Amino acid sequence: EKAIIGGGRDAKPGEISLAHNGILFMDEFPEFSRSVLESLRQPLEDRQVMVARAKAHSTYRCQFMLIATANPCKCGYLSDPSRSCARVPLCGGEYMGHISGPMMDRFDLTVEMPPVPFHDLDLPSDGDTSATVASRVATAFQIQTDRYRDHLDLRSNADLEGAQLIRVATPDTPGQALLNRAAELFRLSARGYHRVLRVGRTIADLAGVEQVAKTHIAEALSYRLALPHLSNTKDPQKAVSSSFTQPGDRDKPRRTRLV
């Protein structure tokens, strides 16, 4: 825990402070002790951490992007029927259960990465190139820089709170109706609700449009409900599809796929 949060005799900064204004990557996230995982909650919210020891009492800034990865279960073969253990699917829920609900609620995006068959490894990618994505991100970042130029306390959509969040990120009427239905169906926390708004605003910026629309909210929700244990249904993707779209509706969310 000291290595992550900081501490020791001289209250030295930990990895979260060393990652200030950068990225903290934590591989095999559920394998960290519960005390380490829970100690991340307050710094992620406050963007600073207080380290108190006998000889020192220091506060360090720690505004960082946390990227965490995890296998779907202890053995890692939850989605492979030919190699999975006899405890599927219970083993997956138990393994990911090492991460508390409040900790998971602090992630803006969750994406499942299905295994790639070995015969597909050498196939050319059919997605956008890294250069194309980088250009799109740079454009969206410039949009946010211009938007918050007169606000010293704001640099990006991630900084939006309270009235500012409502003013900048409120979606159109269909989008708000979609979010309201999702909040009720999946019992989103206030934190989760606000994070969907921020992500929706960012998706709209990436698309180069001013008004957050239903499609942007739908995509933001799909990232939040990508894993079954994050929702209160056994099949969140099916619920998203049946509850958020109507026959002939063109505003279909791009959903992550559950195996």
- Adjacency order of strands in the biggest sheet: 1-2
Helix content: 40-55%
Instruction: Name the helix and strand elements from N-terminus to C-terminus, one letter apiece.
Output: HEEHEHHEEEHHHHHHHH
Stretches with pLDDT under 50, minimum 5 residues:
245-259
How many discrete structural domains?
2
The CA-CA distance between the termini, in Å, is 34 Å
Quick check: average pLDDT?
Answer: 86
The count of helical stretches stands at: 12
**Major sheet:** 2 strands, antiparallel
Q: What coarse outline follows from CA principal-axis ratios? A: globular
Percent strand equals 5-15%
Q: Kindly state the number of beta strands.
A: 6
How large is the radius of gyration? 20 Å
- Strand-pairing-aware structural class: mainly alpha
Please describe what this structure looks like:
The chain has 259 residues and is mostly helical. It folds into two domains: 99 residues, Rossmann fold (3-Layer(aba) Sandwich); 115 residues, no CATH class. It contains twelve helices and six strands. A two-stranded antiparallel sheet has the order 1-2. A two-stranded parallel ribbon has the order 3-6. A two-stranded antiparallel ribbon has the order 4-5. A hairpin with a 4-residue loop joins strand 1 and strand 2. The longest helix is centred in the middle third of the chain and has 18 residues. It is globular. The C terminus is likely disordered.
